[in-house]
Structures are given as C-alpha cells and as structure tokens.
Specification:
CATH superfamily of the largest domain in chain A: P-loop containing nucleotide triphosphate hydrolases
Oligomer: heterodimer
Number of strands of chain A: 12
Number of domains of chain A: 2
Largest sheet of chain B: 8 strands, mixed
GO molecular function, one term (chain B): ATP hydrolysis activity
Number of helices of chain B: 11
Strand content of chain B: 15-25%
Helix content of chain A: 25-40%
Strand content of chain A: 15-25%
Strand order of the largest sheet of chain B: 6-7-8-3-9-10-12-11
InterPro entries (chain B): AAA+_ATPase (IPR003593), ABC_transp_ATP-bind (IPR050319), ABC_transporter-like_ATP-bd (IPR003439), ABC_transporter-like_CS (IPR017871), Oligopep_ABC_C (IPR013563), P-loop_NTPase (IPR027417)
Order of helices and strands of chain A: HEEEHEEHEHHHHHEHEHEEHHEE
Largest interface: A-B, 62 and 66 residues
Number of domains of chain B: 1
Order of helices and strands of chain B: EEEHEEHEHHHEHEHEEHHEEHH
CATH topology of chain B: Rossmann fold
Structural class of chain A: alpha/beta
CATH class of the largest domain in chain A: Alpha Beta
Family (chain B): Belongs to the ABC transporter superfamily.
CATH architecture of chain B: 3-Layer(aba) Sandwich
Radius of gyration of chain A: 21 Å
GO biological process, one term (chain B): transmembrane transport
Organism (chain B): Microvirga alba
CATH topology of the largest domain in chain A: Rossmann fold
C-alpha cells in the first residue's frame, strides 16, 4: 500500500482502511490531471484520493465537468499522453499504474482491469458479431483454444442473462436492443474475471426499467465474483441503490467522502445538500425545488479558496481559503469550513 | 395550484385530440404500396386545458415524441383529429397552420442543437416577433430585453452567440424564444433531460413561475417520473403507442392502476439511505418488444409480472372511472393492492429536512442581498 505524501489527502486513504481488514484492490492518491491546450491550461482533476476494496462498489458522483470521467480514464491510462499530464499514485495490486509501460497496461486492461462505457453502441464494433468480440478478449488474455473461448463466451452471455446465447453469439450489435448491448459489454468486461471494473455511466443511456435490470445484474455478478466496482454516475438514485461507498466530486476535487448510508442520512457538504435538495421527489410535491444557484466555475481559472463558495448559501469569509478534506465524523470526510452541518440546523 | 378543468363547460381546451393515430411506412412495394408500417401512436384521445400541465411519460420508442409533434400538427395524423383553440387543424393548409403555430410552441431536449450558432440570441428571440409581426420593428429590442429578463438572463447578454452560454442558459434562451409569440401552450419535449440536476431544478422552477405568471399550459414529455411528479397536474403513461393510463398526477403517483405504471415507478432509483430502501415491487422482465409487431392483446403481456393467459386476447380499452382516471388493464381491479402504493414512499431523516430548509432559506436570503445591492 502506498502511503500518501500529501498531508491533505492522508485522511481519505485512512478512512477506507481503518474499519475492516478487507484488502483494497485499488489505491489512488493525489491524482492530478492537467490538460494543456494552446491557449489555456485546465486542471480537470485536482488531488483526488480514494481506495476501492474487494467486493465493494465505490460511486464517483458529480455533475458534468466535475472530473469524474477523466479520473476513470486516467486510472486506465486512456488519456492522450501528449495533451494530458497525469500525476499522483495509482496502486493496483502492488503495481504503479501510472508508470507501467504501455505493454503491461495492455495486458492488464480487459484482463484484470475492465471498463464499461455509457453508450454501448459506440463501444462495440459494428462489423463483428458480439460473440467474436467477446472471444477476442478471452483469446488475448487467456491460454485457451478457440473452441474453449467460444464456449466461455456463450457461458458469459448466459451469465448476463441474454436469452438464447447460442443464437446471439452470431448476431451483430445492431441486432440487439440497448439493454442487451450493455449486457454484452458487461459480459465482455467480466470475461476474464477482472479484479476491478470501472463502469462510467453504464445505465445512463437506458430506460428506467432496463436500468433496474442492469444494475441488479451487476450487483448479483459482483456477489458471485467479488469484483470491486467503481461506478461513475450523475444519478444519486443509482448511487443509493447500488453502491457501498461514495465520493462526491465538484470542480475536479473530492468534496465529500463517506459510506452511501451516511451520505443519504446526513450529508456534510453544502454541495451535496444542494444536490439532494434539488432532486424532484416521488413522495411529495413541493412548489419549488431547492435549486443551487449559478453554474460550475471555469476550470481554466478556478476561484481561489473553496470552489463551491460562489454558489454556497452557507459561505463565510473563511471560504476564501481552500479547506482541506477533513474528517467530520468516523470515516466521513467533507471539504467545508462549516462542517459538521449539524451546527447549521436551527 | 392551477385551474382544474372543473368548470369544463365554460373553459375550452387549448389542444384537443380525438382518436389520434400515426403510422410510419418503413417499406413500400414497387408501386409504393405500404408493406411494412409502424403504428407509432395508436388511438389517443386527450385534451389540454388552459393553465394546466399534462405530462406524457413512457420509455424510448413508446411514441411520446411523435404524439408531441402530432399535438402541434408538425406532422399530419393518419387517423383522428386535432383541434387547436377550438379550430379543427387536421387538414388545414400550411399557411393557415403557420398562423396557428403562434399559439403552441415547442421546446426540445438539446439546447445546443435547437439554436442557430450564427445568430445572436437577440436575433433568435426576435425572429418569432418578426414572423408573426407581433411587435413593430422599433420596439423589438425592448421586447427581447423583457423576454430575457423573464427567463432570468441579463438583457446585456442579448448580443452574444449561443456558444457563449452554458447548457442551462441556452435552455433559457430557447424558452424565451418559445415565449416570444405569446403562446397559450408550450410543448416541452424532454426539455430538462440533458441538464445536470442542479440546473434542471432551476429550469423547472422557471417553467413553474412562468406558468403562474402567464397562465401557460404545458405538455411535458419526459421519461423522468420524478420531474413529472414535480411539474404535472395530469399524467398520461404510454407504452408502445398506446396510452395505458391517464389521470390526475396525485392519483397516478399514490395509487397507480396499470401494472406498467407501477413497474415504471418502482424502477426509479430513489436517493434514500440503503437501510431505508423501499421493497421492490414486481418488476418488468425482458426488453421492449419490437414496435413493428407489437404483441397481440394487451401489449404489455410479454413483460407484465401479473400476466395471465387471457391477456393475450383482451383489448386495451381504457376503463374510465368516475373521477376521470382511466387505465387500460383489463384486470386492474384484481391486482395486488399494496405493490402500487409501496412504490413511491421515500422516508427521510427529519434532521436532514431541516438542513434542506436552512439551505433554501439562506439561498433565498443571499439572492435577495444580491438583488438589493
């Protein structure tokens, strides 16, 4: 396990290790991603630290532009090297992913690290059958004959509950519905029993009834295989229903980190409070929603101090200084001077 | 809230459709006889009263957007009739329809695609004023400034181009343009789906404020039931081109009749602590059948958790109750009662509710000081 050098980020690393002895699969500390353009430089991810434990699901939640997808791409080393400067430590099973040679990354990706993207149609090759595409992954990473690989492919399709997998094996992506394509992506991602699965908005393009099916499937497969999952989403409902731990990102930083239970019981950062308050609810009708005013700051020149201050109703003078991610209660962290929020309730 | 259509005899609906249907031809023979047709909308009857919000919900491919276009008569129905403001517009000429369009405007999902990147937003908003000759040329700039203020933008931003605005701001511009010809109704086709939650809440609040101020009616097409619950007075649920349930919003959410409505409600992930998650009501299994060959009988029977053999032959006639609530399940009275109401409970921590109140109160106070200063 890498120990974090940066005092700011030490607590986050401790938080996930303190309670139990489940080993963590992935340790990220002080991850920074800077995009350098011709005219401006954007820090998309600014000192993000977290760990994911075996068999658990970590949610990274945030709005567009908060840096959640860039974080996941940086972990997989999928960002273009000539524009993105990535620094920090990413420890996966004793390896420093950010410094591994490209060839090692290639043998890890799809094998021990897998990823699912939002739009299954653009992630599948339209000119190959789905069976061939899954088989290719297995042949690349496992010592198997083509026949064995084909059998495993059909077993995987059956596992993700695709009806009549033998027929579907020979069909092309356009023959399948959106939900079914996403299942194929899951089958492909899990084909080599990865230790870590990164799912970037896996259900956003799907209808709610299909989303419920896919999330349930991911949950079930995780219980069978013990895969650790990082689920990136903007949907707090999805976080509540299918994750164990959560980090909330805002403008490239982690602003809150805790268990899912605690986040929805009592959040400790004003941004999270605003997000939860702005959700239209099913059980009551309010005249107005508690919207967060304003918009996200320009990441090319973020404001000094707390990045949420311009939109925060609880701001004080001290907010001109950047708060650290501080432990508010047992393994509940918040980047806010006003935390704990209990003090703000009359 | 809004005026309920109780005094229906006096108040005329703004939009009314009867037995509306739309077929799209996918394949024709050499003699251009239709070979393969898709019934995107099938026998829909509904009306929109002044000042009310009617939501149309359903999953992708259920025909809700096609219905929206039919309501505006952007496309011609294959069967049935459309009345706008009491006038039958089913077969009127293109020129006449253009005149009518002033009364019903449309907002789309993607604010990036619905604004012309080469026009300043002032030009965009002034265009309907010019087309319908509502405001004389000399006063248009003033009217544009008023409209911008109405949607929460600053008049000095009028000369900027769409790319200079964020998604939420662009949607405000689109709303200002829709308001320009002083319509009686606006059809919002997934108008907030592309926006982040915090921005989505801003736009929903804006739409509600505008409705209260101007007495607008909305047709709100959406797949997001949480949003619909917040904004709608009445809800129509569609499945494979058919309306399967229609009724007052409160009724739909507190006592949904049709198994599809129940399944939709229970499939929504709820932002509550895992220890307080509601029990899973019966879920739909499988995928949406191909709309090219919808199942015989009740169209839901292939996925319905309560399906029985008779469902393959029943008709999907709407069973209208005394309250006006209607649903298309032939056996809804026999369905287990509890699994409908279970679906929408969202227990919350009272301390957290207080925090929300504090957040809102402080936000309102700081908004006031900004205005005052």
């Amino acid at each position: 396990m890498s120990t974090s050098q940066n005092i700011l980020h030490a607590p986050s690393a401790r938080s996930v290790r303190a309670d139990d002895a489940v080993p963590s699969v992935l340790d990220v500390s002080n991850l920074r991603v800077v995009f350098e353009g011709d005219t401006r430089t954007v820090t998309a991810v600014d000192g993000v630290s977290f760990s994911v434990k075996k068999g658990r699901t970590l949610a990274i939640v945030g709005e567009s532009g908060s840096g959640k997808s860039v974080t996941s791409l940086a972990l997989m080393r999928l960002l273009p090297e000539h524009t993105a400067r990535v620094s920090g430590n990413v420890n996966f099973d004793g390896r420093q992913l950010l410094t591994e040679p490209t060839s090692t990354m290639r043998s890890l990706r799809g094998n021990r690290l897998a990823m699912i993207f939002q739009e299954p149609m653009t992630s599948l090759n339209p000119s190959y059958t789905v069976g061939e595409q899954i088989k290719e992954v297995i042949l690349r990473h496992r010592q198997m004959s083509k026949k064995e690989a084909a059998e495993r492919t059909i077993a995987m399709l059956r596992l993700v509950r695709i009806p009549s997998p033998e027929t579907r094996y020979h069909q092309y992506p356009h023959n399948l519905s959106g939900g079914m394509r996403q299942r194929v992506m899951i089958a492909m991602a899990l084909a080599c029993d990865p230790e870590l699965l990164i799912a970037d908005e896996p259900t956003t393009a799907l209808d709610v009834t299909i989303q419920a099916q896919v999330l349930e499937l991911m949950r079930e497969l995780q219980q069978k295989t013990g895969t650790a999952i990082v689920l990136i989403t903007h949907d707090l409902g999805v976080v509540a229903e299918s994750c164990d731990d959560v980090i909330v990102m805002y403008a490239g930083q982690v602003v809150e980190q805790c268990s899912v239970e605690e986040l929805f019981t009592f959040p400790q950062h004003p941004y999270t409070v605003g997000l939860l308050g702005s959700l239209p609810r099913l059980d009551e009708k309010r005249e107005r929603l508690a919207a967060i005013t304003g918009t996200v700051p320009d990441m090319a020149n973020p404001p000094a101090g707390c990045r949420f201050q311009a939109r925060c109703p609880f701001r004080i003078n001290k907010c001109a200084e950047m708060p650290a991610l501080m432990e508010v209660s047992q393994s509940h962290f918040s980047r806010c001077w006003r935390a704990p929020m209990e003090d703000l309730v009359p | 809230m809004t005026q309920a259509p109780s005094s229906a005899s006096a108040v005329k609906p703004i939009i009314e459709v009867r037995g509306l249907g739309k077929n799209f031809v996918l394949k024709r023979s050499v003699f251009s006889r239709p070979l393969v047709q898709i019934r995107a909308v099938d026998n829909v009857t509904l009306s929109l009263m002044p000042g009310e919000t009617l939501a149309i919900v359903g999953e992708s491919g259920c025909g809700k957007s096609t219905l929206g276009r039919l309501l505006m008569r952007l496309i011609k129905p294959s069967t049935g009739e459309v009345f706008i403001d009491g006038q039958n517009v089913t077969n009127i000429s293109h020129a006449e329809m253009r005149q009518q369009r002033r009364h019903v405007q449309l907002i789309f999902q993607d604010p990036y695609a619905s604004l012309n990147p080469r026009m300043t937003i002032a030009q965009t908003i002034a265009e309907p004023l010019m087309l319908h000759n509502i405001v004389p040329a000399g006063q248009r700039a003033k009217r544009v400034a008023e409209l911008l203020e109405m949607v929460g933008l600053r008049p000095e931003q009028a000369n900027r181009y769409p790319h200079e605005f964020s998604g939420g701001q662009r949607q405000r511009v689109v709303i200002a343009r829709a308001l320009a010809p002083e319509p009686k109704a606006i059809i919002c086709d997934e108008a907030v789906s592309a926006l982040d939650v915090s921005i989505q809440a801003q736009i929903l609040n804006l739409l509600k404020d505008l409705q209260n101020r101007l007495g607008l009616a909305f047709v709100f097409i959406s797949h997001d039931l949480g949003v619909v619950k917040h904004i709608a007075d009445r809800v129509a649920v569609m499945y494979l081109g058919k309306v399967v349930e229609i009724g007052a919003s409160d009724e739909i959410f507190s006592a949904p009749r049709h198994p599809y409505t129940r399944a939709l409600l229970s499939a929504i992930p709820v932002a509550a602590p895992p220890s307080h998650q509601r029990s899973r009501a019966a879920r739909l299994h499988g995928d949406l059948p191909s709309p090219l060959s919808p199942p015989q009988g009740c169209r839901l029977h292939t996925r319905c958790p309560h399906a029985r053999p008779e469902c393959k032959t029943v008709s999907m006639k709407l069973d209208v109750e005394a309250s006006g609530h209607a649903n298309a399940c032939a056996f809804w009275r026999d369905l287990p009662a509890q699994d409908g109401t279970e679906g929408v409970r969202e227990p919350r921590n009272p301390k957290l509710e207080k925090l929300f109140v504090a957040f809102e109160a402080m936000a309102a106070r700081s908004a006031q000081t900004v205005k005052g200063g």
